[in-house]
Design goal:
The chain has about 270 residues and is of the alpha/beta class. The protein contains nine helices and twelve strands.
Length: about 270
């Protein structure tokens, strides 16, 4: 099967990374350079689309609570555009196989005779905490980490969080800001009101904002600071290792100013 231009139809599922356009992989750049059509989501930084300067650009994401296309429609667009034009690059934020429905799209294309290539992306579940100095694992602090969706296909918080909250592992929740109150209730119910929490909005982008608190006060902090989606929620003792401690830093500096002056050093800062 060939397109009207004589090309073989193919689909590339591309992970665009967490938001910083420089975190797009070199392989991703090459795919965009070669694209005839690019289908991209709302979490994709549109700066990367400059690499697809000869492609037809089609937005298929979600903005202000409205879906421009259903998943079934996106599947059909991928196949139709590939059949007509040749190389379709389907771009998703983060990694296409981490809560990105990438496998569903791969299977649909294969079932319709379209060749598929998958290019992994840097997942926001690791990169966004790293952007503020939070390691998801650290020797003597956290031996493992969970990555959990805050919004399942039923628009619910994953029930896995009930299990994760009982472990000593770091827990990273994606797409969970609308369920933050429920997350707080779960952790409070298992006696972890003092557990550190970090929330990073627009992670790795120029407009990134971050707050740090505990299960007990994180709702109030988010309200006061105007934190909203898209954001990554990090729960666990590793949050203590963050470079940025906006809620705690000011009081800490004032209390320990004399010590720092005499040691001729400074507390950690941004």
């Amino acid at each position: 099967m060939k397109t009207i231009t004589g090309k073989l139809p193919k689909l590339t599922l591309l992970g665009a990374g967490p938001g910083d356009p420089e975190l797009l992989t070199l392989k991703g750049v090459k795919a965009l350079n070669d694209a005839d059509v690019v289908l991209y989501d709302s979490l994709v930084n549109e700066e990367i689309l400059q690499h697809a300067n000869r492609a037809l650009l089609v937005f298929v994401g979600k903005r202000k609570g409205n879906h421009s296309h259903t998943q079934d429609q996106i599947n059909e667009l991928m196949v139709n555009y590939a059949t007509e034009f040749g190389h379709v690059v389907r771009v998703k934020g983060g990694d296409p196989f981490v809560f990105g429905r990438g496998k569903e799209e791969e299977n649909y294309a294969l079932e319709n005779g379209i060749e598929v290539n998958v290019i992994p992306g840097i997942s926001s579940s690791v990169a966004v905490p790293t952007s503020v100095g939070i390691p998801v694992t650290a020797r003597g602090v956290a031996e493992s980490f969970w990555v959990i969706t805050g919004t399942t296909s039923k628009r619910e918080l994953s029930k896995d969080l009930n299990l994760a909250a009982q472990s000593s592992a770091t827990v990273v929740v994606l797409m969970g800001m609308s369920k933050l109150k429920e997350i707080v209730e779960i952790y409070t119910s298992v006696g972890k009101a003092d557990l550190p929490v970090a929330i990073i909005q627009d992670g790795t982008k120029a407009e990134q904002k971050e707050v740090i608190g505990t299960i007990e006060n994180i709702l109030e902090i988010c309200t006061n600071q105007g934190i909203k989606s898209p954001a990554v929620i990090v729960l666990g003792e590793v949050v203590h290792l963050a470079r940025v401690k906006k809620q705690l830093k000011e009081d800490w500096i004032l209390e320990d100013e004399f010590i720092f002056q005499n040691l001729n050093t400074l507390p950690f800062s941004n």
